[in-house]
Design brief:
Number of strands: 16
Structural class: alpha+beta
Strand content: 5-15%
Largest sheet: 5 strands, antiparallel
Shape: globular
CATH architecture of the largest domain: 3-Layer(aba) Sandwich
Strand order of the largest sheet: 1-2-3-4-5
Length: 581
């Protein structure tokens, strides 16, 4: 079996827009992406993909689901095959858990999200109690409104403050979530102590980690992030992106800065489209995420040596994700400033003027390659070509690649054809792969729909559900098994319930069930829909039983009917037949 923690981590790393776009070319449509639905024939697009919700939905045929569900429905893969394909896309290896049929299913790590949310609430409450932390934020020009918007908190000094929040301080969830640390002697203590706390949110707005900044300038490290967890991967997340999405769309650009304090300080001055990498270099995953929000990304770095190094790494990491419609620029501040100090000294108008005058990526690349190269001798130009070749190899955007090649060739005093014959550069005229043929989609029956919703909300099962099931139908048998399992495990996760079903239903039935489950948004509250489906099934069962009873009564003579049978006939508006003896 594939561990649930791995599946959760995989879905955090995968971007559904990338997954769908490989098979169905998408076009930007406001905050979402659209295309003609691949599951039914249509002339105008009704199929949308949401990068924020990581979900696809067709308003025409009702197809909807996650990245896993798309692969299962579009390519006909099983759940396991889909997980393997997604893992291959992001360079992950799928682990396996050996399962002994004589042993109970392994325990699943639960509660990470709840633990992080409770910690965030605790840190936020502690900030209000700390005059020292409040004074520090005020000294940085931060208002209470902006601090509240970013849910800024404070982790007080002390070793085990979180014990007041989590009485079971030894719970392994706290360690996995990165809230506590265990030393070699086995003693636990809080990871974050005497730090301003910045919650890190995923694209759904859920807390997935924290960044802590020191108050005392002498303390180290200055910034301290949560470790990698099933919910949080530094190379995939950007601080402030969830809150900045609307501002990014309105401004038409995203600004990437180096620290959380820069993001918050800029928001204080009305520049709300800034985000920050989390203690790591900007990665292609970061670029791809930002591309889902805007066509212009400006990197802002300090003008010191560390900032220059970080800028070049960001430029190189951006190359594989570059498209012809994306504008990447680089802004370098004076050595004495970071975005926080610059905007406080010169104001928003001056800062935004600098943003608009930022250096385009191609210009930055050429400037960087030639700043220590006079290009006067043949040897200089050969060295220039050698350094430019691996950069040009990484750019797949045809127009951007062509113009950069022309500029490189000019500086090297070669024609583009001469340079092409010398260097191993990818073919820019490659024919794009054809999209797969559209597949047809069938509707899900009411019984199966109820079964799916019940597996997602097992606590809503009740014993009475077993009374109205039609065991003569295949779906009725499946539904009975699902209800019995939900009654036995009302608080178990979906993966546990599916494991229980493995031994009770046929493999083909389970595969189809997994496919349909993957197409449902697990974050939705389906309680009302489940209740409505239950009522419809109960009504259908009552009508069916009533029809069977009436059929039996019609075969009996009038004088042999019981009072109950006569009452039933009257209740449905029927009269005894006149030809009865």
């Amino acid at each position: 079996m594939i561990p649930e923690s791995f599946i959760q981590e995989l879905l955090n790393r995968v971007d559904i827009v990338d997954v769908v776009d490989k098979s169905v070319p998408l076009k930007k449509a406001g905050a979402n992406y659209s295309a003609c639905c691949p599951f039914h024939n249509e002339k105008s697009p009704s199929f949308t993909v949401s990068p924020t919700k990581q979900f696809y939905h067709c308003f025409g045929c009702g197809a909807h689901g996650t990245a896993v569900g798309f692969l299962m429905e579009y390519q006909g893969l099983s759940f396991v095959e889909s997980i393997n394909e997604l893992a291959r896309m992001v360079g992950m290896s799928v682990p396996q858990e050996a399962r002994d049929p004589d042993k109970p299913a392994p325990k699943v790590v639960v509660g990470l999200q709840d633990a992080l949310q409770q910690a965030a609430q605790y840190y936020k409450a502690e900030l209000k109690k700390s005059d020292r932390a409040i004074e520090y934020l005020k000294s940085r020009g931060l208002s209470g409104q902006v601090a509240a918007k970013f849910q800024v908190g404070y982790a007080p000094a002390g070793w085990q403050n979180l014990q007041s929040v989590f009485p079971n301080y030894d719970n392994e969830v706290l360690n996995i979530a990165g809230l506590v640390v265990e030393n070699e002697q086995g003693k636990r203590y809080d990871r974050f102590r005497d730090r301003i706390m910045f919650p890190i949110h995923d694209q759904k707005g859920q807390v997935i980690g924290f960044g802590g900044r020191v108050i005392n300038a002498d303390d180290t490290p200055k910034y301290y992030n949560s470790p990698e967890t099933p919910l949080f991967q530094k190379g995939h997340e950007l601080y402030g992106l969830f809150l900045a999405r609307r501002a990014i769309r309105e401004a038409g650009r995203a600004l990437v800065v180096e620290g959380y304090m820069d993001v918050v300080a800029l928001a204080q001055y009305g520049i709300e489209y800034a985000v920050a990498a989390l203690g790591t270099a900007t990665t292609p995953f970061h670029i791809t995420k930002l591309m889902r929000q805007t066509d212009e990304v400006v990197f802002c770095f300090d003008g010191d040596s560390a900032g220059l190094t970080a800028a070049w790494r960001a430029a190189m990491n951006a190359l594989p994700a570059l498209t012809d419609g994306l504008k990447l620029s680089f802004l370098f501040l004076p050595k004495a400033h970071d975005p926080d100090s610059y905007v406080r000294e010169f104001g928003r108008e001056k800062f935004e003027a600098e943003i608009k005058a930022a250096m385009p990526l191609s210009q930055y690349i050429l400037q960087h390659l030639s700043e220590n190269n006079t290009l006067q001798s043949q040897e200089d130009r050969v060295r220039f070509l050698n350094e430019a070749e691996p950069i040009m190899q990484q750019i797949n955007a045809p127009r951007s690649a062509m113009y950069l090649r022309k500029k490189v060739a000019e500086l090297a005093q070669l024609s583009t054809d001469e340079m092409q014959s010398l260097l191993k550069l990818p073919n820019l005229n490659k024919v794009p792969a054809k999209a797969r043929p559209k597949l047809t989609r069938t509707a899900v029956s009411l019984q199966k729909r109820f079964c799916l919703m019940l597996l997602m909300h097992p606590a809503l099962a009740n014993q009475e559900d077993l009374l109205w099931i039609d065991d003569h139908a295949e779906e009725g048998v499946l539904l009975r098994q699902a209800i019995e399992i939900c009654l036995q495990h009302p608080h178990s996760k979906l993966v546990v319930l599916l494991r229980e079903l493995e031994s009770r239903v046929q493999a083909t039935v389970l595969r189809e069930l997994e496919r349909e489950l993957s197409a449902l948004d697990e974050t939705l509250d389906l309680t009302q829909e489940l209740m409505g489906a239950r009522q419809q099934l109960q009504d259908a069962y009552s009508h069916r039983q009533q029809a069977l009873l009436l059929a039996r009564i019609s075969e009996k003579p009038l004088n042999s009917l019981t009072a109950e049978e006569i009452s039933l006939l009257r209740s449905v508006g029927s009269k005894p037949s006149q030809n009865r003896a």
